[in-house]
Write a structure and sequence with these properties.
Helix content is 34%, strand content 17%. It contains twelve helices and 13 strands. By secondary structure, it is α/β, with parallel strands linked by helices. The strands form two sheets. A seven-stranded parallel beta sheet has the order 3-2-1-4-5-6-7. The longest helix has 15 residues, at 19-33.
Amino acid sequence: MIKIAIICNYQLLPERVGGMDHFFWSFDKKCKENNIEVDWFFPNSSNHGNYSELKICSSETNVENGFLTFLEQNKEQYSHIITHFVELCTPFFKKVKQLSTAEIIAIDHNPRPLNGYSFKKRINKKLKGLLFSKYINLFIGVSDYTVNEILKDFGSRLKSKTKTIYNGVVIDKILVRENRNVSKPTFLVASHLRESKGIQDLIESVSFLSNEIKEEIKIDIYGDGPYKNQLTEKIEEYSLQNCFCFKGSKPNLNEIFFQYDYMLQPTHMECFSLSILESLAANVPVVTTNVGGNAEVIKNADNGYIFEAKDIKALSQILEDIYLGNKKISINTRELICNSFSLPKMVNDHFDLLYK
């Protein structure tokens, strides 16, 4: 039996079940069907969803140190070691290679700052690339943008060791909107509440709308996070309490998207958004920024609208045009997701890496 290890710096939270949780469950099942045993390493343990079927080793410290300790103590022989949400090109990868002959595959899910890294950090990443990239056999980016950023961060010489595998979603569990309101549509935001998600820009953009629109427009915000108080204060500052409603974190967003006409995602940082895929799969177009891999799935005026990150006036104009019916998306946005961004495709593409 082949045995692999997967290290995921990803908290297992029952109140937040997203696309990556479904991917982990489906990938584990695919491996078992093909006589491949998987040891999963997470920061914590949980039995929600299908996690009870995974062989999970949780760590009291950080997940990288927990895995290194496990290797030292158990001398497990893995054919492959795969990392998710783990910083690339660090001493961790050298230490793993000293303890194991496994091929190492590093999956990069990490967004980059809107204006790039500081000069000092760019130099630091180049040095880390020179020192530690040789210990990683394959770099996987979740979008073409991510692959380009890997090469920019750690050196273009890594091009032959990089590959794009897009994220995918569980399409058949996502409820579908049949008809879209042309005028006075409904809007949702589905996001962790932190500054980099740009929801403060959305609030400001609504403040520029006419009083007539502000009296009617409704935007529901799903998610939670450390920036909620600042967002609440900004809503109060502009007297927009009737426009925005915080709905909290929901584990069943796949059953919620279809209740709305458009999703709004004014983010400043993104790799490749699963919430965008889920929204489109629900036949709900997306208004989002030109960061990360967003433009690789959103085609402007086709299945959504793209604007430059932090361009509040541009977002305000898009909102006004959509709300008044001057802009509209007519196509069924689900078809693209079914064809190109399904969870089975993502699982199969990752599974194929074990036989390259």
